[in-house]
Amino acid sequence: MDKFRMLFQHFQSSSESVMNGICLLLAAVTVKLYSSFDFNCPCLARYNALYGLGLLLTPPLALFLCGLLANRQSVVMVEEWRRPSGHRRKDPGIIRYMCSSVLQRALAAPLVWILLALLDGKCFVCAFSSSVDPEKFLDFANMTPSQVQLFLAKVACKEDELVRDSPARKAVSRYLRCLSQAIGWSVTLLLIILAFLARCLRPFFDQTVFLQRRYWSNYVDLEQKLFDETCCEHARDFAHRCVLHFFASMQNELQARGLRRHPAGRSLEPCPVPEPPEDLDGGSGKAYLRAISSQEQVDRLLSTWYSSKPPLDLAASLGLWGGGLSHRAPTLALGTRLSQHTDV
Question: Which long-range contacts (CB under 8 A, 24 or more apart) does 240-247 make?
Answer without folding.
Answer: 240/276, 241/273, 241/275, 241/276, 241/290, 241/293, 244/273, 244/274, 244/275, 245/273
